[in-house]
């Protein structure tokens, strides 16, 4: 990479960012109506993106975004945002990437405030810098005053008081302020724990936590430490920094969703940490929606954590990549940017290797729990303390555990590349943000300038027509609902027929297993010699033989159920992916006449309006049948010599039927012979299959109803906001036209100047982006 070329590109990016900020300042003098209240009334929250109509909120958001990009360009910093739900293993993943423990793990949300973790060569021991600590100190004074007259018993009922919370309460009572610097893992852990507990305590005491004071990325805490995997590598221009973001609705704070969206929009790239065991859960869906919203301008990557919990019947790496890329993320991420891993195994392997390198031996497992976790993962469940004394053996076991974690691939393909190309990532991020800004700004200013040239009465007519269009929208909304209900009804009816067919085939397959001749074959006996067999009973003389038969029946039924699971999962996912596309098309077609009418009316008046349909979001239509099968059959294996009353097969099938102790003594009886009552056992299986398929039908119907209702509400709210935005812009123009001619002419000149500046920024940024892409391509050769 040519240092001079990078320097010139960064200088150009800095110039364009400064020009955009100056242009944005000039726009603040343009008279605008306050659309924020309209937005909040429609969507329930403040808009975070730049709409066609500039609101005061959107101007502030754009200014913060541009300043953030300017800061990253100055440092040539690549910010990789890490996002995931509480249980996905986000902190463990960050520790695995860094190669040492820099974030604490607790069984509760641990990211109330975003935190930066910056690779700093030579900084072996982590150090936390928290320069902007004054809002927290002010909060502590508020809480101190509140607690002085607060009943501790009432607080205990509203809040879990553990050791960490007691420590924090003591600090508050003493008025102890937070430090601006913390050196070492334990002081950092205590600081971050206290910050998160402050959020919980503030909620319990109904005191506002100062989240708004940490909206700017330069105000949040920063941990500086050398990333183990990057130590000793050649120096590169630029910096690599991880951004630990709060998950959506962590700690019961819904506004954190907005904070998450803002932080992701300012990142250079996003790494989503997904839970392999909960890929289609509601919480993971919230994360997917957040990262999909920024997917066009920010590169996306995904780590599928807890892949160590995969079993022989689970999806393999390629299946997981294909499912996430195509089904869950709707093509926003390519399969090559998805990495199934075990973050816990990677973290444990890293920590064990670090301890062996620095101390020559692992700590006492009785004092440090992670050593026990490492030993069980690397050495097996039967490990002994004596096994930990052999340093060479432990080092080899840690290397194998690292290999099994599959973490080497994302480290090499993502972290190494991000470090080597940090400056290019920073430049590319700035170019994308600048292009978005210039495009939106030019379109808005052009629309406002047209409003100065349109006749006064024409402006009034268009405002009135938009009122009519918003009324017409209500009627179209009812018609669209009817069409959507029809499509949903047809899809559910087709799904019901499919499930009925699967139920019939499942019953037939199980019926074949319970066929008397098949049972005799499983028992290894012939009808003409040996034990007798009636159509409804199988009589055997040996208890071990009876147990073998039941084991074989259990295994055969398990295979039938797993095959049905895979088939139902695949088919329903395809069916409801198609339904989502059909519903989006139906909604767009229903709204098309309004869009056409508005564009024709505005075009006739001299306006060029931008109207785009919102996306229909109903990703939960991808029904997760796999979860319903998780406990279908208990996979327990015990020695075959277990007494008949505690047979593992009996327990397994009892749990499979969700009816423990339902009377296996009626099926295998220890007398002169051992009798399996085939008819009654078979009847139980048939009853369970029927109930199970009915459960799928009910869950499917309820889930589709909730998803479609929410998706439609969002669609129409966003479309209504688009119309309201157009109307407000026309009213702004009308208000200006009612002023004197001098004011109108002055505003026209200001708008023309803004349009010219935005055009220059757009053209120069496009050239900058092309140069950056050329360098990226050269680096990948």
Automatic annotation (TrEMBL):
Residue ranges constituting the Dynamin-type G domain according to the UniProt record: 74-412
Domain of life: Bacteria
Coiled-coil ranges from the UniProt annotation: 449-483
The entry's keywords: Coiled coil
A Pfam family of this chain: Dynamin_N
PANTHER family associated with the record: GTPASE DER
Full protein name: Clamp-binding protein CrfC
Biological source species: Pseudenterobacter timonensis
């Amino acid at each position: 990479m040519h240092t001079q070329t990078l320097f010139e590109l960064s200088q150009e990016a800095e110039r364009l960012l400064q020009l955009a900020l100056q242009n944005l300042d000039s726009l603040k003098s343009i008279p605008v109506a306050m659309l924020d209240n309209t937005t909040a009334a429609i969507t329930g929250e403040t808009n975070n993106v730049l709409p066609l109509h500039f609101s005061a909120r959107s101007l502030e958001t754009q200014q913060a975004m541009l300043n953030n990009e300017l800061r990253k360009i100055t440092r040539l910093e690549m910010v990789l945002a890490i996002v995931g739900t509480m249980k996905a293993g986000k902190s463990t993943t960050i520790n695995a990437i860094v190669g040492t423990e820099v974030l604490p793990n607790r069984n509760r949300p641990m990211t109330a405030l975003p935190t930066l973790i910056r690779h700093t060569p030579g900084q072996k021991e982590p150090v936390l810098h928290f320069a902007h600590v004054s809002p927290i100190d002010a909060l502590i004074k508020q809480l101190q005053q509140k607690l002085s007259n607060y009943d501790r018993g009432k607080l205990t009922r509203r809040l879990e008081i553990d050791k960490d919370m007691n420590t924090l309460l003591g600090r508050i009572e003493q008025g102890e302020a937070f430090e601006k610097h913390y050196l070492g893992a334990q002081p950092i852990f205590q600081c971050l724990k206290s910050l998160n507990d402050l959020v919980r305590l503030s909620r319990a005491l109904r005191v506002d936590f100062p989240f708004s004071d940490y909206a700017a990325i330069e105000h949040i805490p920063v941990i500086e430490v050398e990333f183990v995997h990057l130590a000793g590598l050649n120096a590169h221009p630029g910096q690599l920094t991880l951004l630990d973001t709060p998950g959506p609705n962590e700690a019961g704070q819904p506004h954190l969703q907005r904070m998450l969206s803002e932080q992701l929009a300012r990142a250079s790239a996003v790494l989503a940490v997904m839970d392999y065991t909960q890929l289609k859960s509601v919480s993971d869906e919230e994360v997917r929606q957040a990262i999909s919203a920024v997917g066009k301008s920010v590169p996306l990557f995904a780590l599928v954590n807890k892949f160590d919990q995969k079993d022989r019947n689970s999806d393999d790496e390629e299946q997981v990549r294909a499912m996430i890329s195509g089904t869950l993320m709707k093509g926003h991420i390519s399969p090559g940017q998805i990495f199934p891993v075990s973050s816990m195994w990677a973290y444990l392997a890293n920590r064990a290797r670090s301890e062996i390198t620095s101390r020559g031996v692992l700590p006492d497992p009785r004092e440090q729990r992670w050593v026990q976790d490492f030993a069980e993962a690397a050495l097996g469940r039967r490990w002994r303390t004596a096994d930990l004394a052999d340093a060479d053996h432990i080092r080899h076991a840690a290397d194998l555990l690292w290999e099994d974690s599959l973490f080497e691939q994302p480290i090499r393909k993502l972290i190494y590349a991000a470090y080597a190309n940090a400056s290019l990532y920073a430049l590319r991020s700035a170019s994308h943000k600048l292009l978005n800004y210039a495009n939106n700004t030019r379109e808005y200013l052009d629309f406002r300038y047209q409003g100065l040239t349109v006749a006064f009465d024409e402006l009034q007519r268009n405002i009135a027509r938009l009122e009519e269009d918003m009324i017409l929208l209500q009627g179209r909304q009812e018609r669209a609902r009817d069409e959507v209900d029809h499509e949903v009804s047809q899809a559910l009816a087709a799904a019901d027929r499919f499930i009925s067919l699967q139920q019939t085939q499942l019953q037939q397959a199980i019926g074949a297993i319970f066929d008397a001749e098949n049972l005799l074959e499983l028992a290894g006996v012939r009808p003409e010699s040996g034990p007798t067999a009636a159509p409804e009973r199988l009589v055997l003389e040996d208890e071990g033989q009876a147990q073998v038969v039941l084991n074989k029946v259990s295994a055969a039924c398990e295979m039938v159920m797993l095959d049905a699971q895979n088939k139902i999962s695949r088919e329903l996912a395809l069916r409801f992916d198609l339904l989502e596309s059909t519903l989006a098309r139906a909604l767009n077609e229903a709204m098309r006449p309004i869009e056409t009418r508005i564009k024709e009316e505005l075009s006739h008046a001299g306006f060029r309006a931008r109207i785009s349909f919102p996306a229909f979001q109903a990703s939960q239509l991808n029904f997760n049948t796999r979860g319903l099968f998780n406990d279908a059959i208990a996979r327990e294996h015990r020695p075959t010599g277990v007494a008949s009353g505690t047979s593992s097969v009996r327990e397994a099938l009892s749990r499979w039927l969700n009816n423990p102790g339902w009377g296996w003594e009626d099926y295998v009886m220890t007398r002169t012979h051992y009798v399996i009552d085939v008819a009654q056992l078979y009847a139980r299986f048939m009853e369970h299959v029927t109930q199970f398929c009915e459960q799928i039908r009910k869950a499917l119907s309820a889930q589709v109803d909730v998803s479609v209702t929410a998706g439609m509400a969002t669609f129409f709210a966003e479309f209504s906001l688009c119309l309201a935005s157009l109307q407000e812009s026309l009213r702004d123009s009308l208000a200006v036209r009612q002023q004197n001619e001098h004011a109108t002419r002055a505003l026209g000149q200001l708008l023309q100047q803004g349009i010219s500046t935005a055009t220059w920024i757009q053209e120069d940024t496009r050239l900058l982006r092309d140069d950056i892409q050329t360098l990226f391509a050269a680096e990948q050769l």
